[in-house]
Design brief:
Jelly Rolls; eight-stranded antiparallel beta sheet; seven-stranded antiparallel beta sheet; globular; DUF1349; DUF1349 domain-containing protein; ConA-like_dom_sf
C-alpha cells in the first residue's frame, strides 16, 4: 500500500477552504454542497467536493477521516466518478441525528442505502473501494476494527474511473472534515474472507 499525494487529485468542485495539516488534509465543504440525481426528491445536485485521480482496474483506494458531524446529511468518504450520471459515493452520513454507513450508487438515477453506526462518532473511519472485474467492492471500518462490507456495485471493467476523498454539506451550514490519509493498493483478492 502506498500513500497518494493530496496534490495528485483534482477537485470536482472547489471547497470553501482546503489546508494541508501535517500529513492530513482539512477540507471545508460549502453549505448546500451535495451529489444526488432525481430519485424520490426530484432534483439533481452536482456540487460535491471530490478530490479525484485515476482509479485503474485491479486497484483499491482507501480514504480515512475523523468522524465529527453535526448537521443533517453531513457526509464524507470516497467518491468514484465515470461521468456526471455514473458515480458512487460511500462513507458516513449524518441522517436524522444518527451516523450511518452507506452508499449512493448512481446510474442515471441515485440509489441510497444506509446502516446506523452511532458508535463510530468521534472516531477514525476508513472507506475502501476495490475495483476488479465488472464490479467495485466498498468496505469500511472504524479505527482498526474488522472491515464491514458496504456495497458491491457493477462497474464496467473498461470504464475510465476517477476516485478519491469527498465531502458534502447539504444543510445550510458548512462542514469541515479532517482527512488523515489517502492510499492506493492492489484490489482485494476476493469478495469474502477465506474460510
Amino acid at each position: 500500500m502506498s500513500d497518494v499525494a493530496w496534490s495528485e487529485g483534482r477537485w470536482t468542485h472547489d471547497p470553501a477552504h482546503v489546508e494541508v495539516v501535517g500529513d492530513g488534509l482539512v477540507v471545508t465543504a460549502r453549505a448546500g454542497s451535495d451529489a444526488w440525481r432525481t430519485t424520490s426528491y426530484g432534483f439533481v445536485h452536482d456540487s460535491e467536493h471530490a478530490l479525484l485521480t485515476a482509479h485503474e482496474q485491479d486497484t483499491a483506494f482507501e480514504v480515512s477521516f475523523d468522524l465529527d458531524f453535526s448537521n443533517q446529511f453531513d457526509q464524507a468518504g470516497i467518491f468514484l466518478r465515470v461521468d456526471p450520471e455514473t458515480w458512487i459515493k460511500a462513507g458516513v452520513e449524518l441522517s436524522d441525528g444518527v451516523e450511518n454507513l452507506g452508499a449512493v450508487v448512481t446510474r442515471g438515477e441515485s440509489d441510497w442505502s444506509l446502516s446506523p453506526v452511532p458508535s463510530w462518532a468521534g472516531r477514525r473511519v476508513t472507506v475502501r473501494a476495490s475495483r476488479a472485474g465488472n464490479a467495485v467492492t466498498i468496505r469500511a471500518r472504524v479505527d482498526s476494527e474488522p472491515w464491514q462490507l458496504v456495497r458491491v456495485a457493477p462497474l464496467d471493467a473498461s470504464a475510465v474511473v476517477h476516485s478519491g476523498p469527498y465531502c458534502c454539506a447539504p444543510s445550510a451550514d458548512p462542514l469541515t472534515v479532517h482527512f488523515t490519509s489517502w492510499r492506493r493498493a492492489a484490489a482485494d483478492a476476493g469478495l469474502h474472507p477465506d474460510g
